[in-house]
Predict the 3D structure of the following.
Amino acid sequence: MNQRLLLAALSIPLSTSTWADFSATPEEARSIAREAYLYGFPVVEMYKTLYTQAVDKNSPNFKAPFNRIGNTAKAFTAKDTAFVTPNADTPYSFVWLDLRAEPVVLTLPAIDEHRYYSVQLIDAYTQNFAYLGTRSTGNNGGHFLIAGPNWQGQQPVAIDRLLRSETNIAYALYRTQLFDEKDLDKVKQIQKGYKVEPLSHYVKQKAPPAAPNIDWPKPTPTMSDTPDLFRYLAFMLQFAPPQEVEQDLLARFAKIGLEAGKPFNPNELPASQRTALEDGIADAKAEFARFKKDKVDSHQVSSGDLFGTRDHLNGNYLYRYAGANMGIFGNSVEEANYIGYFVDKNGQPVDASKHDYTLHFDKGALPPADAFWSLTMYDGKNKLLVANPLNRYLINSRMLPGLKLDADGGLTLYVQHKAPASNLQSNWLPAPNGPFYGVLRLYLPKPEVTSGEWKMPLLTPVDQPKQ
């Protein structure tokens, strides 16, 4: 191996030279770019979060270095911008895992049986490869070994379970249910019991040689929307050994110069080639827009289709893209069900500058969930929580005792920008003065949700268009 390739293998920054060949014709390049954009967008969006939470110590969203835990002992608010469509019910804990040198042991404490908690294990493709916690391992805690794709060691006897990531960079996203503001101290105590340590430290043995340092490229504002995305994708793929099922796909990507660990600089390409990449990206975005309108907004495709393991997604990169675009790091269907409210009962995009809305649940027809349910409001423009005078970002099942029921025992929620009448404000979910969307989350959904027996209510506009 020559010196330049050796240095690249050890620490691969973004380069100013294009090493890989661009052999595709413009027509081929456009088609390949469409595929590569859908494939790579989740990886690059994940990289944005990785960089701000684990690399850039000056970032307001920095949580902790690799293989250490960062706890957030509060629910998300409108000031949190690390990722889109955040969940405000469960304070998060964050561990970015570097599994190159050795596995990492995650220790969970035992907690009260009535409180939900989980650890979502996510690989660099945003695929959920495993879970820990209430549903999967129970509330009794334990010690769990997370290993990368190349580790060949034996599982220690004291480890409850071995879980393997197909990528050497992975993410452990913890959720701890918060009952109300008075419950924060209990959540903090639970979070103190979340421990992270290298396997060598856990078994009290000498640590293996450290992995080479990584020169993490700084994100740019346009990295997810232009051919720059392929630069970051090539960088991240060095941590993801190729899967046999994707060999042909990766060979096609190589025809536009996109290869794992090889620098990719679209600014050095001839105008015709760069235009082909831009056109392919535009094709991918148009394909997603049609899919969202025809399948997602009409609820023909659910969140359960968009998030999960590699086997669950089964090569459907449009679905994986859609999940990352609308709510990255969403849970698998067994853990939670997400119902998006993007349109009203008439199929029109929801906009609180034009209408007020109601959401009505019949008596006995509240969302069926073994843990809890929650309806959260998001700004349609930035996909973040909505600042409002009540600092209320959601209405959930824990709030039921404080909500006003209808005369027949049903529940009506008021979704609007301006406050409703004073006797209705307990049921008000504040919306922005413009486009919005809501997400109804059901944690540990009951079988009638996935079977389709339970029918979600629809948002109903209750006034004439506002002038």
Summary: Residues 401 and 426 are 10 Å apart (CA to CA).
